[in-house]
Amino acid sequence: MANPAELVIRPVDRWQQQHRAAGFAFGVIKKFGDDRGGTLSALITFYGFLSLFPLLLVGFTILGFVAGSPTSHLYQQVQNSGLKDFPVVGQQLRDIHGLHGSTFGLVVGLVGLLWGSLGVAQAVQFAVNEAWDVPNVVRPNFVVRLVRGLGFFGVLGLGVVGTTALTVAGGLLGHSLVAGALGIVAALIVNTGLFLGIFRLLSPKHLTWRDHLAGAVMAGIGWQVLQIVGNLLVQRNLKHTTALYGQFATVLGLISFLSLASQLVMYSVEVNVVRHKKLWPRSILQPPLLTADRKALDLRATQEKRRPEQHVRTGWEEAEPTTLQR
Hints:
This protein is mainly alpha-helical.
């Protein structure tokens, strides 16, 4: 006899399986859970906080040496454009005027920070491979991952250049409603191109640009929303805080922002995976297992292959899986 919860969930399950949009959305959520997406997002957040934040500070220091006075036009334009990527800490970094030290110490510090920052690139690559169910035996070796990590930061650098160009162009166009709308559209295009390049760089090479487009569009829109919401929260909640409380709020806000951004990246990758491999509809209550359920479980099993001479096979003892007409 079915329990009360099952009596409620079964009709919902049948409904989402029979509707393409709802079934696809649940398929993405299910795949995110299968891949332990929350844990992978936390890993990216951890390395992002420890690596990208100090690298951003040193970048502003170098900018101070290159652009001259912190009050110069170039310094302020690049600083403001970079702050858009980290809206929670933007206000805290506006007063940075460059760090003083020897050239040798600065070079050593930059090399160390760059090496440490590769941790976030490695975490993102690992998460992408997990999402695409790439068997361990064919995953890139350390050298390839290192090169891709450098490419990852190269793509991010292009994104910074793009946001800088938008900042300069926005200043030329003024502050009209039309200029604001054009700025948002241009930012969405730049953000989408940025994520499209990252997904293409870090994903299996047999995939095409088109295979990454849906997730890149989702990530670009989501990133724009995160920036706007982050800036609003900073302006409203941190504007009148004390120095001590403001420091705690800044750190917690940065971690929260990075966590949301990491989950956005993971869900965007899962959209591409589910769409490319047709891993929907999925069942909420099991049994029965649908075709997509068994395919997803098979992919998880074959992902564990670690040696070329190893053979990983899966089989099912039950009847043939249920296939829904879509």
